[in-house]
Specification:
The chain is an alpha/beta fold. It has 17 helices and 37 strands. Among the domains are: 161 residues, Galactose-binding domain-like (Jelly Rolls); 119 residues, Immunoglobulins (Immunoglobulin-like, Sandwich). A hairpin with a 3-residue loop joins strand 28 and strand 29. The two termini are 42 Å apart. The structure holds beta-D-glucopyranose (BGC). InterPro entries: Cellulose_deg_GH3, Fn3-like, GH, Glyco_hydro_3_AS, Glyco_hydro_3_C, Glyco_hydro_3_C_sf, Glyco_hydro_3_N, Glyco_hydro_3_N_sf.
């Protein structure tokens, strides 16, 4: 593609009037994974879109240019700090510019119906108000830099199981009050430039061709006048999608527009006017982003700085939630002897899996972070908790001595003698998704790779080698075949469901001896089976792992021994990007095999053990009674380990609050019976009773309620006063820090209707404010709340919101389970409304 030399602005209507039909048709789809189509003769450049939602990856899944990684969605929402989250958005905007991207594909604003959602970590909250506030803050931050945000996935992409085929079946009331509400709030408060449609159907029609959602609600009721794009390979029709209002098919090259649009124009199923409506939005977006001055095909750069690190450390630490802290076990004393134990300690679980993942500038593991503050802290693995073996590139070295592997690319299979290499690439992460890998000589998705490196073990023991792939491959150690994922392949859920199960081979290796490793790979077309719904996986990919054999029992014994030798233990357990990922949901809510046993054993060996859990969504904690202290640490981005250490040792006073309830068991969750695609449908049977709305209504005990989070100090919230001018309710209160350390508290405001004409949740969050208060001092907070949003429910009979004539309690406190302050407001006359 030639580039446009000078960035000049253009007039949208003028360009539209001059475009030929082929040019218009071209503008309706991307040209590759990440770029829109240009029309150079009329001064319309191609612009770059990049994932979102917790950092900006750029144009390469594999071997990307390193980027700043923010905490995952739940970790951000757990800060309950709209200013901080807005700054996070602004950082993403700046990062996007460094990556030459004009549009960020984020934030993700779906809902956690169940703890099992594979992408639950990406979204903010089970509460639509909190999710909406966090989305709006992120979008305002991103768009303050001139970069466009794409709120996604519109709407009801709340599970991964059969995500393209599943029909999310729900009442109009649940759709409005729970699932559309975060988008509605974001639309009202931040006007995102773009929306990405969901993969799934909503009540019978796919979101990407759903006129009710795209035309009636989004553009009609909410007045959205920006661009809608499909999720990747989520455009399923030509005419219907265009007519419904889907502007841009992504990615390209087009598989369902292009000549099919010509055909539809030819037979009159589409009129040029239909196409013009869509093209106009593409042109408007391109024109808007031109102010950024990003040249076409801009190089991708890094802008890491100490300020970014410092900000990310604060952002991550502020989202950590102190769930339990009996007898003030935390913060720990740096002077005491300390052990760091657990599967998440030495491995940095900085981000969930799938399109949210990116190559971070760096990632601090909890062990690194803790040793930074207590250098002599001892370490034991405790239990291997990986779902797939850790990446080989942690341990392997290239000829030059760098950690990683050397990848050579061939057009011919290994059977061709003297085949010529067309590319040689250094790989520092042996998780290689080739969908957006480009090389001028590669003209089809069929080609071959070889990865080479060496490995020098630190112990004489058995080592496990592994491979899962969307393609075929083998691993050889010193010429000996150790893993064969070619001859017999088993379907699995790797590579967004397109790939195989992980095949593992074991070999005894000797300490200090250097072994040659060779991995051979044929791309996706060589695979011996194909999975449905994996359109666009092009060349596929491979993931190669290596780790010493670790048996749960032996590792636990070692950990217990270590725990007995020290004054205090930090036990880091949880999930990672293999357990929580786009492409599949979790099978259960438990920690990985061995972890619960480890935690129980270590707690018995040393009662001064603080448990740190890293997960994007709730996990079961069967050992909770015996654990004195539990810290929920999410996936914290680059600074994960430093943020954990800061809270564990008290440099940061924790102030995070849960953005979602932690049920005791998955069976307690309201979506338990309906969280799966059953022959392509998922019934949202819990209706509006998602999360705490259900647990409260049914008086079900939870492990930790929505909004909960402790501090190293104590707060008193008092002097509640509420004023009401008919449109806005102003809630004010005083927060006193009655303890000995400075800290922050979140004042949470819930509304509850006295005599609703229909069944409503006991209470619903409608406002909050986080306030920092110095020890011994007090601060006043004022929270302005839209009265109609705070009081209304969706009236299905009138197809409108209604604020009913009634009295409403305004309940104020520091969690959904603790709202000791009450005031009342009245709605004097029932009123129905639509729109924003
Ligand atoms: C995800 C989107 C993402 C897109 C591009 C899809 O698989 O659902 O959220 O933006 O890929 O990576």
């Amino acid at each position: 593609m030639g580039s446009l030399p000078v960035q000049t602005s253009f007039d949208v209507e003028d360009v539209l009037s001059q475009l030929t039909i082929p040019e218009k048709v071209a503008l309706l789809s991307g040209i590759d994974f990440w770029h829109t189509a240009p029309v150079h003769r009329l001064g319309v450049p191609s612009i770059r879109l990049s994932d979102g939602p917790n950092g900006v990856r750029g144009t390469r899944f594999f071997n990307g240019v390193p980027a700043a990684c923010l905490p995952c969605g739940t970790g951000l929402a757990a800060t309950w700090d709209t200013d901080l989250v807005k700054k996070g958005g602004a950082l993403q905007g700046t990062e996007a510019i460094a990556k030459g991207a004009s549009v960020i594909l984020g934030p993700t604003t779906n809902m956690q119906r169940s703890p099992l959602g594979g992408r639950g970590f990406e979204s903010f909250s089970e509460d639509p108000y909190l999710a909406g506030a966090m989305s709006a803050s992120t979008i305002n931050g991103i768009q303050s830099t001139g970069v466009s945000a794409t709120i996604k996935h519109f709407v009801c992409n709340d599970q991964e199981d059969q995500r393209q085929a599943v029909d999310s079946i729900l009442t109009e009331r649940a759709l409005r009050e729970i699932y559309l509400m975060p988008f509605q709030i974001a639309q009202r408060d931040s006007r995102p430039d773009c929306y990405m449609t969901a993969y799934n159907k909503v009540n019978g029609t796919h979101a990407s061709e759903n006129p009710r959602l795209l035309k009636d609600v989004l553009r009609g009721e909410w007045g959205f006048d920006g661009l809608t794009m499909s999720d990747w390979f989520g455009t399923y029709s030509t005419t219907e999608a265009i007519k419904a209002g889907l502007d841009l098919e992504m990615p390209g090259p087009s598989y369902i527009r292009a000549h099919l649009v010509n055909q539809a124009l030819g037979c009159g199923k589409l009129l040029v006017r239909d196409v013009d409506e869509r093209v106009r939005e593409v042109l408007k977006l391109v024109k808007k982003t031109q102010a950024l001055g990003i040249p076409e095909n801009a190089p991708e750069t890094t802008i890491d700085s100490p300020e970014t690190s410092e900000f990310l450390r604060t952002l991550s630490a502020n989202g950590l939630v102190l769930l339990k802290n009996n007898d003030n076990l935390l913060p720990l004393d740096k002077k005491k002897t300390t052990a760091v134990i657990g599967p998440n300690a030495a491995y940095a679980s900085y981000c969930g899996g799938g399109s949210a993942s990116l190559l971070p500038y760096y990632a601090i593991s909890p062990l690194d972070g803790i040793r930074e503050q207590v250098p002599e802290a001892k370490y034991a693995l405790g239990a291997p908790a990986w779902k797939a073996l850790p990446l080989m590139t942690r341990l392997s070295k290239t000829k030059k001595g760098d950690h990683g592997l050397t990848m050579t690319v061939f057009l011919d299979p290994p059977s061709v003698t003297n085949r010529k290499a067309i590319d040689e690439v250094f790989v520092n992460k042996s998780d290689i998704l080739l969908v957006d890998y480009k090389h001028p000589k590669i003209k089809s998705s069929l080609y071959y790779l070889e990865l080479n490196g060496t490995f020098t073990p630190e112990q004489t023991t058995d080592y496990d080698f592994s491979m899962c792939c969307a393609g075929t491959g083998k691993i050889f150690v010193n010429g000996e075949l150790v893993v064969d994922n070619e001859t017999h392949q088993r379907p699995g859920n790797s590579f967004f469901g397109a790939g195989t199960a992980e095949e593992i081979g074991r070999m005894k290796l000797e300490e200090g001896k250097t072994y040659d490793i060779k991995v051979t790979f044929g791309t996706l077309p060589t695979m011996t089976f194909s999975s449905p719904g994996t359109t666009g996986f092009g060349a596929g990919g491979l993931r190669v792992g290596l780790e010493r054999k670790a048996e749960i029992e032996t590792e636990i014994e070692r950990a217990v021994q270590l725990a007995k030798e020290v004054d205090q233990v930090i036990l880091c357990a949880g999930l990672n990007s293999e357990w929580e990922s786009e492409g599949y949901d979790r099978e259960h809510m438990d920690l990985p095999p061995g972890s619960d046993k480890l935690i129980k054993a270590v707690l018995a060996a040393n009662p001064n053990t603080a448990i740190v859990i890293q997960s994007g969504t709730p996990v079961a904690m069967p050992w909770l009674e015996s654990a004195p202290a539990v810290l929920q640490a999410w996936y914290g981005g680059n600074e994960t380990g430093n943020a954990i250490a800061d809270v564990v040792f008290g440099n940061t006073n924790p102030s995070g609050k849960l953005p979602l309830s932690f049920p005791i068991r998955n069976e307690d969750n309201p979506a338990f019976l309906n969280y799966k695609s059953e022959r392509n449908r998922a019934i949202y049977g819990e209706d509006v009773y998602i999360g705490y709305r259900f647990y409260e209504k049914t008086n079900k005990e939870v492990a930790f309620p929505f909004g909960h989070g402790l501090s190293y100090t104590q707060f008193d919230i008092k002097d509640l006063s509420v004023s009401d001018d008919g449109a806005e309710i102003l809630v004010s209160a005083t927060v006193s820090n009655t303890g000995k350390v400075d800290g922050a508290q979140v004042v949470q405001v819930y509304f509850s209707q006295h005599n609703a004409s229909i069944n409503r949740p006991k209470k619903e969050l409608k406002g909050f404010s986080k306030v920092f208060v110095k020890a011994g001092q007090s601060e006043k907070v004022g929270i302005a709340i839209s009265k109609k949003y705070a009081t209304s429910f969706w009236d299905e009979a009138r197809d409108a919101w209604v604020m009913e004539k009634d009295t409403f309690d305004v309940l104020v406190g520091d969690s959904s389970a603790n709202t000791p302050l009450t005031a009342q407001v009245k709605v004097l006359r029932s009123e129905w409304w639509r729109g924003l």
